Amino acid sequence: MVYSQNEKDTSFISQFEKPNNIQLNTWVTDLDFSINPRLQDRDFTVKFTPNVTGQTGFSFGLKKVTLFIGFQIPGTESDPWKYGKTKYLDFSFSYFNKKFGGEIYYRNYNGLYRDANDTTPLTIRDDARLTNYGGSFFYVFNYKKFSYRSAIGQLELQKKSAGSVVILANVNFRSLVADSSLIPKEIDSRQNFSNLQGLTDLRFYTFNIRPGYAYNFVFKKGMYFISPSIFAGAGIGNFEYRGISGKVERGVNYDMDLRSIISAGMNHKNWFINIFVIYDTSLNIFDNNLVSLQTTSYGLNIGYRLKSYFRIKWL
């Protein structure tokens, strides 16, 4: 087959007659923000988790652009008497082209609980707030035969199995803030947590690059698919924290990052369905403490394809 330098190989990738879609998304998220002092014989890990379990939302796809918003499903959280209540908002906007794409996202959790460790029981912290927002950008090298748009959002049809090296870059902000010390008073000392003693505010601004690989395994000309991908890399940025002195301390931090995704499902000319698992972690090391944000999501998407009634050139 002969095709131009920027054209896709149509024996591997084809477009759907209906390029737009609306999706119902349902998922469960396990998220925690951990501060773990190193060189300790006992478990002094301070881990904060929001009490949000069942979540749902809608996605609106306009060919290459997807707008998503999600909310907690009332009554599906864990026992609020034990774990407290969390107010939650999840918003994202994404754009997928044949070579590249990106996403802007915002997640905010008000009201967390602190897991038990060797010294303290599980504790509700209504005053604690966890925020994570940023933007990501990816570039696909083998875009002529591999469709990342198919792997992520079923926006194209991958007719033959193929894979590609993918570069993922991310600019990210994350913070954990409370009205009083986030560390239990039983272990809140300089000996245990160094300069994070009395911590009330911790913020990270980071940029990282994660090279990785993605593959679409397809069957029956793309009707059924399994799409795994994995990215690992490192980044640099700044941190800010407020400890027992009350002063804001700043510095440079380095982080290590890992992201893995696997989705599987079925394509039809009028609809699609897929299940997915996404694991994302960022690890920072400073002041003899390991600080990590880990997120694992399991979900189900059901989409209905829609015709395009008008044309926008950049779409």
Written description of the protein model:
This protein is mostly beta strands. The protein has a single domain (13-306), classed as Beta Barrel (Lipocalin). The chain contains three helices and 15 strands. The chain has helices spanning 80-83, 148-153, 190-193; strands spanning 13-14, 20-37, 46-50, 54-62, 65-72, 87-96, 100-114, 123-140, 157-158, 162-177, 201-219, 224-242, 248-267, 271-286, 289-306. The strands form two sheets. Strands 2, 3, 4, 5, 6, 7, 8, 10, 11, 12, 13, 14 and 15 form a 13-stranded antiparallel sheet that branches. It has a two-stranded antiparallel sheet with strand order 1-9. The protein is elongated. The two termini are 26 Å apart. Residues 1-5 have low confidence and may be disordered.
Coarse structural class: mainly beta
Mean pLDDT: 88
- Rg over CA atoms, rounded to whole Å, is 22 Å
Question: What is the element string, with H for helices and E for strands?
Answer: EEEEEHEEEHEEHEEEEE
CATH topology: Lipocalin
The CATH class is Mainly Beta
* Uncertain parts: 1-5
Termini distance? 26 Å
Estimated helix fraction: under 10%
What would the keywords be for this entry?
315 residues; 13-stranded antiparallel β-sheet; Lipocalin; single chain; 15 strands; mainly beta; disordered N terminus; 4% helix
Q: Could you provide a short overview of the structure?
A:
The protein is mainly beta and 315 residues long.
Topology:
Blueprint: E1 13-14, E2 20-37, E3 46-50, E4 54-62, E5 65-72, H1 80-83, E6 87-96, E7 100-114, E8 123-140, H2 148-153, E9 157-158, E10 162-177, H3 190-193, E11 201-219, E12 224-242, E13 248-267, E14 271-286, E15 289-306
Antiparallel strand pairs: 1-9, 2-3, 2-4, 2-15, 3-7, 4-5, 5-6, 6-7, 7-8, 8-10, 10-11, 11-12, 12-13, 13-14, 14-15
